[in-house]
Amino acid sequence: MKRWHKYLKENKDSKYVAKVVLFIGSKILFLVSAARPFKGNLDLPGGHLKHGEDLINGLRRETKEETNLDIGDPAKIGQEDNIVFYYGNIASPKLKNIKLSDEHSDFKLLTPKEVQEGNYPITPSFLKMILRANDLKNKNQPDSIDLIQSTIFFSILLLLVKGLYS
Hints:
This protein has helices at 2-11, 55-67, 112-117, 124-140, 144-164; strands at 13-24, 27-33, 42-43, 46-50, 75-80, 83-89, 104-110. The protein is an alpha+beta fold.
């Protein structure tokens, strides 16, 4: 009887949840919930971890189960109660490769602005983390002025080095 109890405990979901704000270009992959009480709400890939399961491994497993997508190394962006949120990018997958589980009825690719300005039902903590992830994404992308300045600097440096050795 003890072995059966251990099996149930190991294979039962824990109270912890991992979700990922998954960017595909400038848009975020949202799943549309199929079950009540959140039917029709925008959801993020991820879900309940199994007892003893690592957060990242659980997030990868849940994302694969719900979307058929493999995610790389997401970065933690915050936590609300028992939900840990991550941010990640995926290099333009073929949308036909997305296969939804029965937990979701559809998926949408939306910008954070479209979510804010649209009339989409979404959990407030999800919206908060989406905006945080978008800020991080924008901070991690070099500004076009920075790129121009860097190009000019390295061009001048190259000319100086070339002049020294001519």
